[in-house]
Amino acid sequence: MKFSLWASNSRAWSEVVDLATYVESVGWNGFWLPDHFMSHTADDSPGIEPALDCWTVLAAVAVAVPNLRLTSMVSPVTIHHPVVLAKRVVTVDQISNGRAVLGLGAGWQVNEHRGYGFELRQPGERVTHFIESIRVIRELLDNERANFAGRWYTLTDATFEPKPVQSPLPLLVGTAGSRMLRTVTLYANEWNTWGSPSTVAAVTERFIAACEAEGRDPASIRRSAQALVFIVDSDKQRDELLPKIRADRAIVGTTAEIVDVIGQYAAAGLDEFALPDFNLGASPAQRRETIERFQEEVVGEFSTSG
């Protein structure tokens, strides 16, 4: 089981590079960053928290930290033109000497689309647009000259140089829906989903069925998951916390219990677990302390980490 850190894009650059440097030093596999232009709010009102640009930060981390895989989690094709997005990820792959992962999504965050005037289509059309976008990106990355005629995008004898260092450059899709899962089997190299082990197991059954339906070996697709991790040291802490969180997207327990839960992901065939830093503390010092504890008491129990 490999581990990555999923940092909020609201962090100051000084904290981003500090955390990335730390997790690399202890053998973690990757660094993930959200791709949003505005912070999320529960009621879709305008977000007021800072929001650094994902691909600019990943390019900077690529230079500052020499070994981590660098993943956008995930870049919405409602906001990024697929040609521009492909150029950004290839540039980061060149800068990092082959460590970029393009996480792609269909778009979902209402407040940034509303505030900046990006179109957020109805769910069915949104997936159709996503499929066309990933096909455009695949065409650019994989062919010497790209040709494509779709509803939204056209490529005409289009060169696209330089090509990525990696062959293929990994495309990651995070999804649980049936049409999107089929898209994973046709065009993606990696699949990601949120949830506790039981939640992930249920979605994994659908993922495997989608692979079988399209003749794709599920083992050929790298799998990752994430959940909010809440470390507790007493039953009182646990009891106070449980009513406040989504159980299907969280892991709550002592570090020994969390080791067991992470082991369930590994047993289910997942290659990687990403630790979101969103809930790990109110200050940089608190977040760093929690991540260090997770490393020492959880990750340290997995001899194959990193």
Summarize it:
With 306 residues, the protein is of the alpha/beta class.
Give an overview of the whole structure.
This protein has one domain: TIM Barrel. The protein has 10 helices and 13 strands. The chain has helices spanning 13-25, 54-64, 82-95, 110-116, 123-142, 178-187, 197-214, 235-241, 255-267, 284-297; strands at 2-6, 30-33, 69-72, 75-76, 100-105, 145-149, 154-159, 171-174, 190-194, 222-226, 228-231, 250-253, 272-276. Strands 1-2-3-5-8-9-10-13 form an 8-stranded parallel β-barrel, surrounded by 6 helices. Strands 6-7 form a two-stranded antiparallel ribbon. The protein is globular and about 60 Å long.
The first-to-last residue Cα distance is 8 Å
Percent range for β-strand residues: 15-25%
How many β strands by DSSP? 13
Which term fits the overall shape? globular
- Uncertain stretches of 5 or more adjacent residues: none
Roughly how much helix do the residues carry, as a percent range?
A: 40-55%
| Sheet with the most strands, sense and barrel status | 8 strands, parallel, barrel
Give the CATH H-level superfamily. Answer: Luciferase-like domain
Count of individual domains: 1
User: Which architecture name does CATH use?
Assistant: Alpha-Beta Barrel
Number of helical runs?
10
Mean residue pLDDT: 95
CATH topology: TIM Barrel
What is the CATH C level class, in words? Alpha Beta
Listing every helix as H and every strand as E from the N terminus to the C terminus, the arrangement reads EHEHEEHEHHEEEHEHEEHEHEH
**Rg calculated over all Cα atoms:** 19 Å
Would you tell me the structural class of the helices and strands?
A: alpha/beta
